[in-house]
Design goal:
The chain has 9 helices and 13 strands. It has 246 residues and is an alpha/beta fold.
């Protein structure tokens, strides 16, 4: 497995639903330290935390992580990463993993697999992951993002609605949930952050739709047992603290 990739962890301090989210404790460690330790267990040759907060900068230094202070005006973690790769002058062909600062419990092996997927699929701009949905509850939950893709694992669409629909009302065999981790080529990421938001992105509140709308190609890797939790609410935090998976 090549280690020719960099992980950048965007960590915004001022979350509306969970203020100070990166520094919330899960079993005596901050959330951002848990995510960093996942990154550290991968084959990445460089790991950076991108944050708008002096407090997160200090926390990162306390557990030996390198952090970059970025603007507080970014609308997304992708934009925050874009600032970092411009500041540090990344080569256009370098693989950048966007490991969200609130993605708790993701296995390092899946991060390695994601990087490998983009490295080996050279005609794709972006790579991400999905997992089969096995319950109607997840399938109909608007907080669970669904994806459909073609025979070459190229993303067709992402939605918060149940897709694809089985007209009988049953859970379809090809229902997949998106796992919100991305690999980009640095050159494409520089272009993406300059694109305007599109209507379907605004409607679904899914920025990956901006990639599809503008003709970008997203590779979807199918995995099993991701068991990570995106920490967005107090309930998510309680679930992580109790040791339950997402």
């Amino acid at each position: 497995m090549s280690n020719n990739f960099c992980i950048i962890i965007p960590a915004r301090y001022g979350s509306t639903r969970l203020p100070g989210k990166p520094l919330l404790l899960i079993n005596d460690k901050t959330l951002i330290q848990h995510v960093y330790e996942t990154a550290y267990a991968t084959h990445a040759n460089k790991i950076l935390i991108a944050t708008d907060s002096d407090e997160v900068m200090e926390a990162a230094a306390s557990f030996g992580a390198k952090a970059v202070l970025t603007s507080s005006k970014h609308e997304s973690g992708t934009d925050r990463i874009g600032e970092v790769i411009e500041k540090l002058n990344f080569d256009d062909e370098e693989i950048i993993i966007n490991l969200q600062g609130d993605e708790y419990g993701l296995s390092a092996s899946l991060v390695n697999q994601l990087a490998s997927n983009l490295l080996t699929n050279k005609d794709f701009d972006v790579a991400t992951l999905c997992e089969r949905i096995d319950s109607m509850e997840e399938y109909t939950d608007p907080n669970v993002v669904k994806t459909v893709f073609d025979s070459k694992n190229k993303a067709i669409y992402f939605s918060r609605s149940p897709i694809p629909i089985d007209r009988s009302g049953s859970l379809p065999n090809n229902a997949y949930k998106h796992i919100g981790i991305y690999a980009y080529r640095a050159g494409y990421l520089k272009k993406f952050t300059k694109l305007k938001r599109c209507e379907i992105e605004i409607s679904e509140q899914l920025e990956q739709l901006r990639i599809l709308y503008n003709g970008g190609k997203i590779h979807i890797g199918i995995v099993e047992g991701a068991n990570s939790i995106g920490i967005d609410t107090k309930q998510d935090l309680e679930m992580a603290c109790s040791g339950k998976s997402g």
